[in-house]
C-alpha cells in the first residue's frame, strides 16, 4: 500500500494480523516458548484502547490484597504500568523464546496486542484469564495519531493513518477483526475472556472496576475498608498517574516517553479531529463488519 507505506513502514502479515518485522519474531518466540500457568492473566487490546489504565487497575486490585507497610511505595508510584505488565510479543518475547519470568509473582500479569486466535495457541489447554479492552475506533484513531506524532517527533498528517486504519493495514490491524476476535472469544469462553469497553470504564468506573475484580478472582468484600474502590480509581486516574515523577521522566524500551501514554483520556475527542466524511466512512465499515455480531459501537 504505497500511499501510506512511508507512514506505517513495512508491515508483514501473520495469521491475518499485521506486524512490523521484529514483532513477528516476537510472536513466533511467544508461540514457541510461552508455558502458561493456570493463574496467568493477559490484558489484551488494540493499541490506544486503554491498556495503560487497565494495567494500572489490575496492578492496584492485586496490590490491595498484600499486607504492605504504609511507608512502602506502591508499585504504581515507582514504576510505569507498562514496566510492571510487559507486552508479550514486543517486550518479553521480542528477542528470545525463553525470557526470564522468575521475577513475576503469582498471578503473573502480561499484556498483548495479538488477536485472540493467535494468543489462544499457546493457551489452548490452560484456564488463563484474558481481559480485552475495546475502545471506539474513532477515538483510537485520534489517539494513535497523537502517539505517532510523538514517536516521529513531528506533526504529521492524519489522513494516511486514517486510510490505513480503514483498509485494516496497520500495527496489529485490522482493528475490526481484532475486536471481533475477542468479542467472539468472550461469548464462547465467558469464564476466560472478559470484554470491557473504555467508554463504560469512563461512564461507570466503580461498576466496571468491581466487574474486573470479580472476573480476576479478587472481588471486593463486605469486610473491605469503605472507599476501597474509590481509592483504586483515584490512584489509577489519568490525572494521578500522569503527575507521578516516574511517568513524567521515564521511557519505554523503544525510547517512547511514558508521558505519551497519558493524553486527554476522553470519550469523543474524535469530534475535534475527524471530518464528517471520515466519520461516515468509518460508520459504514462498522456497519458492514459488525453486522449480526451483536457488537455495537
Ligand atoms: P487519548 O490519546 O485519547 O487521551 P493505551 O494505554 O492503550 O496506549 O491508550 C492510551 C489512551 O488511554 C490515551 O487516550 C490516554 O490518554 C488514555 N489513558 C491513559 N491512562 C489513562 C487512565 N489512567 N485513565 C483513562 N484514560 C487513560
Written overview of the protein:
By secondary structure, this protein is an alpha/beta fold. 49% of the residues lie in helices and 9% in strands. The chain is built from 16 helices and six strands. The strands form two sheets. It has a four-stranded parallel beta sheet with strand order 4-3-5-6, with helices on both faces. A two-stranded antiparallel ribbon has the order 1-2. Strand 1 and strand 2 form a beta hairpin. Helix 1 crosses helix 9 and helix 2 runs parallel beside helix 7. It is globular. Bound molecules: adenosine-3'-5'-diphosphate (A3P). Adenosine-3'-5'-diphosphate binds next to helix 3, helix 8 and helix 14. The site of adenosine-3'-5'-diphosphate (A3P) has 22 residues, from helix 3, helix 8 and helix 14.
SSE pattern, N- to C-terminal: HEEHEHHHHEHEHHHEHHHHHH
Q: pLDDT average, as an integer?
A: 93
Question: How can the largest sheet be summarized?
Answer: 4 strands, parallel
- Count of alpha/pi helices: 16
Using brief descriptors, characterize the structure shown.
two-stranded antiparallel sheet, 297 residues, sulfotransferase activity, binds adenosine-3'-5'-diphosphate, transferase, four-stranded parallel sheet
Provide a compact summary of the structure.
One of its GO terms (molecular function) is sulfotransferase activity. The protein has helices at 2-8, 21-33, 51-63, 75-78, 81-84, 88-92, 116-123, 137-152, 159-167, 175-188, 198-203, 205-216, 228-235, 238-243, 245-249, 276-290; strands spanning 12-14, 17-19, 41-45, 109-112, 129-134, 193-197. With 297 residues, the protein is α/β, with parallel strands linked by helices.
